[in-house]
Amino acid sequence: MNKYAIRRGIAIGMVCSMAFLCACGKKKEDAPKDTVQTKAQIDKDHIFTMDDMELPMEGDYGVNKCCTTKDGLYVLATTYGEESETNKLFKVSFETGEAEEIEIGDDDNSYFDNMTCDEDGNIYIIKSVCNDEEEEESSEDSQDEETSSDYHLVKLSPAGEVLFDVELLEEDLKEYVQSLVFVKGEGVMTCCNGNISLYDMKTGEGKHITTRDKNDDYYYGSLFASKDGTVYLSEDEWDDNSRSILNKYNPQTGTFDKDVSLPDNIYASSLYAGNSYDFYTSDRGNIEAFNLGDEKTTLICDFTASDIMTEYISYIAEAGEGKLFVINSTDYGYGKLACMNKVEPSEVTDKEILTIGTTFVPEAVRKQVVQFNKSNDKYKIKIVDYTEDDTEDDAEAYSDTVKKIGLALTQGQGPDMLVLDYNMPIESYAEKGALEPLDPYFEADQDVNTSDFLQNILDATRINGKMYSVIPSFYVDTCVASKKKAGNDGVTLKNYTDVCKNNGIDPKLGMGSMNRASAAELYSTVGSTFVDYENGTCNFDTPEFIDLLNLVKQLPEDMEGTGYDYEDFDSFYRENKSLLFEYYISSFDDYQVLKKGYFGEDIVFNGFPTTDGGESFISTNLQIAMNNDCKHKDVAWEFMKSFLSDEYQKKIEWGFPSREDALEALAAKAQEKPYYIDAQGKKQETSQFWSVGDTEVEITELSKEETTELVDFIKSVTRTMVYEDTVNNIISEEAGAFYEGQKTAEEVADVIQNRVQIYLSENM
């Protein structure tokens, strides 16, 4: 699996590079009204408490599904960690929170999965029944194969009495029931991989309604019912304003014949019917609500302001004024029932506010903010998302966001800390005095010793010799090659064509799927080696840069010009059709995926071909800087250094930690068979597989030599990825004349040299 970083377009990058510079010298200009200062206060109106609710079950369990009735909710839970799973059904009172079990039997061949209920409290539940006949006919050699199951719809009274138990229609019988809702006066509607059916509320007799179109043999739609009982079907559809839409069910015609648009930025995947509002919805940051027809949602709960950390909310039930019941996903992926109660604004404790600004909200930042706020009685950190008020997700909206950040930083209204985006002009921020040098904090803090960290990562934070940010984790952008094909000299700009031809590879496909239209990858990497950003100089008018132009010229014009689909290239390295594979290495598993999957032989981290060899690049997962105008710098540092703590570093799951001992711990773990730590804290061995094209790769333990090879490579990478899209755009614009035969490479290189040098002189 090739994990390309998500990057913004060239136009956005140009805005990022210029916005701060345009802001400089404008201290007399009025700051935007919507500045960080106006947001640097506690949001007291959307604060809730969250308390876990324990069900009367033995052992470990997870809550699978809920449905809401008049005075409470039904909860379906399953034990885990045992040889056999056990289902239990409960009714939880909204008023008291007490859970009463409803007996549903204990059948080893049955499993209850999904459910809904009607206004009288009757429960309609999906039962999966193991097919004993097929199981008996299967041979011992096929014991590991999935056992066939049939699906039944069971109606239970509020007391648990079985009112009917019917097999689903033939169209639905072998499909997973993705969703089901109660249709007032009619019965239960099910969605089974695009098959929509309706089952009579009295008899369970089913009839097929419609079959929806599928993508890749899988249907991604879901059924929802609003508070008035109206049924809607969500599909991956959008209106002219790029808003997600629902299809309204017409009981008279039995069709979904009316489109209803949802509010901005709401996706029809997880909607929960309410009383005060038509629907509630949640992401990791908030719970919001809306009525159909609303342009925007209403904020109900701000998790971060409430000091609540949740992985995922998979159900919301309104239980009265200021009270919600939710399924809160745990760190292990199991749902737990929780009760949320609104806190009156007068009861919220006042604290000094520090802000951390961002153009997106990394989950790691949200977690650390909640942890900090819970443990500090005097200060509270507030996340300010500069994009939250954007009505469009495009280059123009992003340009306004970046300008807002630039103005804020230069007018003393910026956030106390800033999550640095890839395209932000960090060097300019530092050189203009907007960022606080962190060297004194490292030197004075006994809890943080620079010798504990990878020196190449610390160097990546330095501008003109000073450290201006912390980088908790990172990955490495490189080009991988077969060790045998790359040879002792590796692949360079000069020998690229010869190495391809010597191995029977067409140079046109030597870089895999990379083509001239996507050559910004090469301009950002190899091209950046021709620029000295600290001194504001460049050297594009050289034979070495001309070698880069000649390499790119050999590539296809675009993806269509390759003659293949993107997925086809997964096997090209094993089949000796491609030479260099750009890959973002973020784990020790990647080593096996590359070696066993993509190449099928020993590999070498060649890097992007340069004049003398190859160059790999550090790319940051997260990078945080401090505003020079921060009023509580000691407090900001306490928060920032929490990302460098032993506790945080050794919990990093994606990317490489910047602490050397944490990286070595990952290397040691990679030398063991794959395992996970269960809810009891015990180590459980497991099997892991990756699919690379038609090749399935089992992740096993690495040898000491293999982990050492990867660690040594990681430590050897000294260049940091520079997403200077203004420079990339200049190269792309001018190089086209050479690729099309209108100018020589030397002429193009001279023009690029002049344009980039002017840009650097004016802006660096």
Write up what this structure looks like.
This protein has 764 residues and is an alpha+beta fold. It folds into three domains: 10-44 and 348-473 and 621-652, 3-Layer(aba) Sandwich (D-Maltodextrin-Binding Protein, domain 2), CATH 3.40.190.10; 48-132 and 145-346, 6 Propeller (Neuraminidase); 474-620 and 705-763, D-Maltodextrin-Binding Protein, domain 2. The protein has 21 helices and 43 strands. Strands 25, 26, 27, 30, 33, 34, 37, 38 and 43 form a nine-stranded mixed sheet that branches. The protein has a four-stranded antiparallel sheet with strand order 1-24-23-22, with no helix packed on it. Strands 2-3-4-5 form a four-stranded antiparallel sheet, with no helix packed on it. The radius of gyration is 29 Å and the shape is globular.
